[in-house]
Amino acid sequence: MLLEGFQVKRALKEDSAAIKKIVEDLDLSYKGFEVSDFFVGKLDGKIVAIARVQAFDDILFLTCVGVIEKYQGRGIAKAFLEKLTAIHKDKDIYLNTVIPEFFQKLGFHSLDLLDPSLSELVKTLPPKKLFNCEECFPERCRFMVKRGEK
Ligand SMILES: CC(C)(COP(=O)(O)OP(=O)(O)OC[C@H]1O[C@@H](n2cnc3c(N)ncnc32)[C@H](O)[C@@H]1OP(=O)(O)O)[C@@H](O)C(=O)NCCC(=O)NCCS
């Protein structure tokens, strides 16, 4: 699928309404809204994809990934997240998701937070409630990472 003219940009203040509409339409829960945390994917100037990248000290967390329904299934999320992860390629990017198969295709892999070797990381992670995870499907939720280039 050709995605000519597809652009990935950090969101601007004037993108707020379009981002909030996508969040609402796709039922993507979030707490707080800082437009500067968002990136947008634009096709022919129209915002069709969104994602939020929040920094917590040295940790990056990816949330609120969504593509407008009628644009889904065309490779937009793949193109969008490939660009987004390339922009942040020096850092590890973490996320919680109920669709790990999708993120696996983009180079993320699951981590088991009970693994003793991750105890230091666990101490530094932002609390799950920040992401409304408790209102989601905890039994299906996977914690994943895409490692940065060191
Ligand atoms: C999930 C979502 C972002 C995918 O967007 P999209 O633009 O349709 O995805 P793409 O077309 O780029 O798909 C890329 C690949 O992922 C696969 N894929 C897409 N959605 C998937 C899903 N829900 N589960 C597993 N795999 C999925 C595609 O089949 C494709 O595979 P391929 O490369 O082998 O052909 C979109 O469906 C969406 O916004 N859903 C609602 C919000 C949501 O669930 N966000 C994630 C919250 S953690």
Overview of this protein structure:
It is a single chain. This protein is 22% helix and 29% strand. It has 150 residues and is an alpha+beta fold. The chain has one domain: Aminopeptidase (3-Layer(aba) Sandwich), CATH 3.40.630. The longest helix is centred in the middle third of the chain and has 12 residues, at 76-87. It is globular and about 45 Å long. Coenzyme A is lined by residues 26, 28, 65-67, 72-78, 97, 99, 101-102, 105.
Largest beta-sheet details:
7 strands, mixed
Radius of gyration, whole Å: 15 Å
Helix run count: 4
CATH architecture group name: 3-Layer(aba) Sandwich
Q: Assign the structural class, choosing from mainly alpha, mainly beta, alpha/beta, alpha+beta, or little secondary structure.
A: alpha+beta
- Which overall shape is indicated by the principal axes computed on the Cα atoms? globular
**Helix coverage percent:** 10-25%
CATH class: Alpha Beta
Proportion in β-strands? 25-35%
How do the helices and strands follow one another from N- to C-terminus? EHEEEHEHEHE
CATH H-level homologous superfamily name: Gcn5-related N-acetyltransferase (GNAT)
CATH topology description: Aminopeptidase
Indicate the multimeric state. single chain
Biggest sheet strand line-up: 1-2-3-4-5-7-6
- Count of the domains: 1
> What is the end-to-end distance?
32 Å
What low-confidence regions span 5 or more consecutive residues with pLDDT below 50? none
Number of strands: 7
Mean pLDDT: 90
Bound molecules: coenzyme A
